[in-house]
Amino acid sequence: MPERIMFTMGDIASAEGALSAGCKYFGGYPITPATEIAEWMALRMPEVGGSFVQYEDEIASITSVVGASWTGVKSMTATSGPGVSLMLETIGLAVMTETPLVLVNIMRGGPSTGQPTRGQQGDIMQAKWGSHGDYQIIALTPASVQEMFDQTVQAFNLSERYRVPVFVLADETVGHMRERLVIPDEKDLKLEYRKLATGDPADFLPFKPDEDLVPPMALLGSKYQFYATGLTHDERGYPTDKEDVQLELVARLNNKILRNADKIIDLERFMLDDAEIAVVAYGTPSRSARKAIKEAREAGIKAGMLRLKTVWPFPEDALADLASEVKHIIVAEQNFGQVYHMVRAAAAPTPIHLMAKPAGMPQLPHEILDKIKEIDSL
Amino acid sequence: MTTAPPILKHPMMKYIREDRLPWIYCPGCSVGIVTQMVTRAIDSLGLDFSKVVVISGIGCTGRTSGYFKTGTFHTTHGRAIAFAEGVKIANPKLEVIVISGDGDLAAIGGNHLIHACRRNIDMTIICLNNNIYGMTGGQFGPTTEHGRFSQTSPRPIGNPEHPFNLVQLAASSGATFVARWTATQARRATASIEKGIAKKGLSFIEVVGACPTAYGRMNRLGDGLDMHRHFLKVAEIQNGLPPHEAEFDYDRRIVCGEFVNIEKDEYTAVLKQMKEKLRK
């Protein structure tokens, strides 16, 4: 399809990004503020020959996505924090069985039912640590309607490349804001697909990794027979309680992401080159920060922003570099301080100031400007 | 000098991962019988085995999928049906079989069971009902009869709850093929599994099995042989009986047979029609 231009909301841009990425299976359950993705998919999926299924709950939704992915179909779900809480069990299964899938989380106010129609960024740590055990996922944090499209495409590429669940973590404001969206010509999109099993089925080991630590994938219904399980398994896929297999598997599941962190992480440096005060932000607060920084510059304050487009794996090295460049770091996020703790770990001993706001209205530009001025006067 | 006779291979071994044997099951368990029923049903239907997907949940029966030599998946507890729906919808050409236990399918996975029946999605669910949580050591489950003893309903307390009748549950939820047999009625059960696989719709086949290690021991029902003999004694075949009359009284009367075999629009076929409608 040639280039298209829409004036639309972030949720729908994400759905269109998924379709452009070749997603052909959506399993979901209605939830504010992510419902528009399901509603859009209900009509668009059958149009492109894919399947939209509304399940009985979020548990079935994401588990069906894992099943669909193992047939070779790019698959996704979309939900909000309460839905992710129900999905965490299967996220662990997807990590353990190395299943490519995309989960769009339009973050709303929490904890619990919270404020369904108000945005927040309270699910950053949940995405990384929600399921039990030690593992890595990838999480992207778009800040505009266009990025909802672009980063959903990227989420599919990363999930296919590393065989891992990838989160698109967008706050409700980004999900529901309306902006111009340019959907590129499909010829201009770079799409990735998982490495598939090759060679003699008799010698095939379904969980034997290549050098990049990612094993080629066998699909259900192919000539390769295999057993995939959430139990600790060896290269044959067979369960074992041996300690060395557990250590090796957990290390590989983590390292296939951590060792490729520089290829995964996407950041924007805004007016940082000579900055003395850096704002670290993502999603909607980063939009406020951009305006505040321009105004601070006009007032003669050397401020800049490091905008995180990827929060997991966490860009530790970039934060350590930033700490050596600037005198102060302000972390502005729409929660009680989540990325803040990661910044503190990576950027100490540079002074780090938290602008926390676990509520629906993000930090406004003048609030961030006031904070920059306050820090500048220290 | 006499030579040892050649060791014959079990005719169904071609469907089994021999390198995973011996398997984990206790002596007297019915899982082996049910596994053989499924292989024989697949064999007599002449299916392309590489297009058959076997999925299970967690528990003793939940380990079954790992012994089939095809595409197999061991999901988390209760989620086998949800996984299977994704597989079937994404690739309707695959023959999808779910084998799991009563605790997995009817307690933690109960919601997925009733909704898959309601959707009438083409898959075959084989539930080995041994009336207990076996793998965790014998706790009462959704099918344990009132008053029965288990590790969480010990003597002299007994189970405070009442069981699901799985035939009634599946039938009232909308399954288009519903049968119940005991593990001792291997040929009849195999024939129903065959019909279930061939049926375009959701087939639910309950196989009442023995867990001598947990259920048998705690309720003094004897060993595996005693329990399987008991099944023959109390099984009463009533093909075509309205499902709500398919009584399950472990000591006295377990009504067996095929109770539902109806025609209804199948889910993936409906999805296909919807796609075609949009393409016009």
Strand and helix layout:
The complex is a heterodimer of chains A (378) and B (280).
Chain A lengths: L3 E6 H11 L4 E4 L6 H13 L3 E4 L3 H12 L5 E5 L1 H16 L4 E9 L5 E5 L4 H6 L8 E3 L4 H18 L2 E7 H5 L1 E6 L42 E4 L13 H16 L2 H4 L2 E4 L6 E5 L2 H15 L4 E6 L1 E3 L3 H10 L2 E6 L5 H9 L4 E5 L8 H12 L2
Parallel strand pairs in A: 2-3, 2-4, 4-5, 5-8, 7-8, 12-13, 12-15, 15-16
Antiparallel strand pairs in A: 1-9, 5-6, 7-14, 11-13
Chain B lengths: L30 H15 L6 E5 L14 E4 L5 H11 L4 E7 H7 L1 H10 L3 E7 L36 H8 L3 E6 L3 H13 L3 E7 L3 H7 L5 H11 E3 L10 E2 L3 E9 L5 H13 L1
Parallel strand pairs in B: 1-2, 1-3, 3-4, 4-6, 5-6, 7-9
Antiparallel strand pairs in B: 5-9, 8-9
Describe this structure in words.
The complex is a heterodimer of chains A (378) and B (280). The longest helix of chain A is centred in the middle third of the chain and has 18 residues. Chain A is built from 13 helices and 16 strands. In chain A, strands 2, 3, 4, 5, 6, 7, 8 and 14 form an 8-stranded mixed beta sheet that branches. Chain A has a 5-stranded mixed beta sheet with strand order 11-13-12-15-16, with helices on both faces. A two-stranded antiparallel sheet of chain A has the order 1-9. Chain A is α/β, with parallel strands linked by helices. In chain A, helix 10 packs across helix 13 and helix 11 packs across helix 12. Chain B is α/β, with parallel strands linked by helices. Chain B has a single domain, classed as Rossmann fold, CATH 3.40.50.970. Chain B has 9 helices and 9 strands. In chain B, strands 1, 2, 3, 4, 5, 6, 7, 8 and 9 form a 9-stranded mixed beta sheet that branches. In chain B, strand 8 and strand 9 form a beta hairpin. In chain B, helix 1 crosses helix 6, helix 3 crosses helix 4 and helix 4 packs across helix 5. The N and C termini of chain B lie far apart (78 Å). The model of chain B has no long low-confidence stretch (mean pLDDT 97). The chains are: A alpha/beta (378), B alpha/beta (280). Strand 10 of chain A pairs parallel with strand 2 of chain B.
